[in-house]
Amino acid sequence: MTDKDSDSKSAFRRLPSLDEVMRDPRATVLVGRLSRHDVQAFASSMIDAWRDEVRSGRLNETEIEARIASGALFEELELRVERELSRGVVRCVNATGVVLNTGLGRAPVHREVAEAMARAARSYCVLEVDRETNERNQRDDYLGDLLARATGAEAGIGVNNCAAAVLLMFQTFAGGREAIVSRGELVEIGGSFRVPDVMARANAKLVEVGTTNRTRIADYERALNERTGLLVKVHTSNFKLIGFVEDVPPRALAELGAAKRVVTGFDLGSGLLEIAGAKPLQPKLGDEPLVRDAVRSGVDVVCFSGDKLLGGPQAGLIVGKRAAIEALRKNPIYRALRLDKVTLAGLEKTLELMRDGRADEIPSRIMLNATAAELKPRAEAIARRLAAIVEGSVTVIAERSQPGSGAAPDIFLDTFCVAVDPRHGGATALALALRRSDPPVFTRIQDGRVLLDPRTLLEGDEDDLVRAFQELAGRADPATRRRTP
Ligand SMILES: *Cc1c(COP(=O)(O)O)cnc(C)c1O
Questions:
Q1: 3-state secondary structure 73-124
Q2: Is-contact 364 311, C-beta < 8 A?
Q3: Going by DSSP bridges, is the β-strand pair 228-234/263-269 parallel, antiparallel, or unpaired?
Q4: Using one digit for the tens of pLDDT, what is the confidence trace for 335-394?
Q5: 467 by DSSP, 3-state: which?
Q6: Given CA atoms 224, 229, 233, 237 in this order, what sign does their dihedral have?
Q7: Residue range 102-133, pLDDT digits in tens
Q8: Quick check: 420 and 394 in contact, CB under 8 A?
Q9: How many CB atoms are closer than 10 A to CB 158?
Q10: Which candidate, 196, 143, 157, places its Cα nearest to that of 334?
């Protein structure tokens, strides 16, 4: 036996046993917070990792003893338990200034919308039955009517998200047939949603026309044949072509479709609805197309998201001609994509707020409408509070926020941010520590500073944000460390 072998043998023997670890009072405390089974699984995987280190010669007996003495094992065990307890869809503070932040759940809904959703979830509800006759009906009859009224369309239907709406559109009208799309509109929209891939899965044969920067109606016309099921426009949402560019207006597409008896569709994505009497969003969002204009152009179906510029829960909404919407409803795939009662209740309430002249109360609309002049005093108030806590510089700077979710990609909204330049550790470490706070705080980093944009803060978020900084400051100085109750 070589020296090395006997060294590692004694190192293996010195590894803590699972039994030993689990009997330790420091583990017992953790078992009170998470199941014994889970704590044991974490402990076991940590011991395994140590064993691997011994096997590869990176850890010897002396080092194991030092580690055990330092309590590192239990510190890491506690960290793993804490991470496990903070997983999942938990509330967070969005200080990024990106209003429809997909990573943070896009549009936060109006309080009454959230209440309607909670009520529907908690109780039985009139979902798919007629109160008068007690017979089955369509779950989204009312939603369809509200959508039609809000957009000027004949009818409407709702599905799980806009990707589902686009899938349903392609499958219904071009499944086993051809769909004509401009090369300039074959886009990928965040999180792996690629128009050509969705078409392929909908069994629609893609016929590309035009070039990346220019497509004319004559291009569509030439590609039309007896196999064509759908002519489509896709709003390029998250990117913008500038310069020598020409695309086909939806009206021209609608006219061609009507003349040739081929269905026409427009995937708008972001779905900007202007509401009579409410503050308009359009000038701020540049030339982001309006749902109403898309409908008025005469295309058969228009798809858009419920949780982008509409400011409601996640959904895909399709409005348009009655016959086309009925065809979508009759497709068996609709059954796999349709909305649940909770989302339906939330969408109905969102559209009711708009109908009742209360669109300006919708949180994402408030955020998109907030002016730099309104945001400056909010940034200054946060900066004053942070200056008393943070070691390092805290300043208020002119900055720009973004609508997010691919809505108006070239548009930036003037804002004022609090810029924190930490004296110790750097901006990346500070941003990570803030994300680990309870509730987590998401920020953006720019030029070595952490930026906090008041545009996306909801009521009460300022306090949570300041508390997060207080706790971090406390962590550096154990004497003043605050503990969450
Ligand atoms: C965002 C977007 C989609 C996908 O919408 P989801 O609601 O996220 O599924 C589809 N098409 C366009 C043009 C979009 O902007």
A1: HHHHHHHHHHHHHCCCCCCCEECCCECCCHHHCCCCCCHHHHHHHHHHHHCC
A2: yes
A3: parallel
A4: 999 999 999 999 999 999 999 999 999 999 999 999 999 999 999 999 999 999 999 999
A5: helix
A6: negative
A7: 999 999 999 999 999 999 999 999 999 999 99
A8: yes
A9: 25
A10: 157
- The answer to whether 411 touches 403, Cβ cutoff 8 Å, is yes
Asked if 446 contacts 408 with a C-beta cutoff of 8 angstroms, the reply is no
Q: Which two tokens stand for residue 429?
A: 């470490």
- Ligand 1 site, CB within 6 A: 161-163, 166, 189, 193, 234-235, 237, 267, 269-270, 305, 316, 405-406
The Cα–Cα gap between 368 and 281 comes to 7
Return the best residue to mutate from 239, 288, 305 for the ligand 1 pocket (most ligand atoms within 8 A of CB). Answer: 305
* DSSP annotation string for 360-410: GGSHHHHHHH--HHHHHHHHHHHHHHHHTT-SEEEEEEEEEEB--TTSSTT
Residue nearest to atom 8 of ligand 1 (CA): 162
Distance CA 360, CA 241 (A): 32
- CA–CA gap between residue 155 and residue 431 (Å, rounded): 46
Number of helical (H) and strand (E) elements in the chain, helices listed first? 20, 15
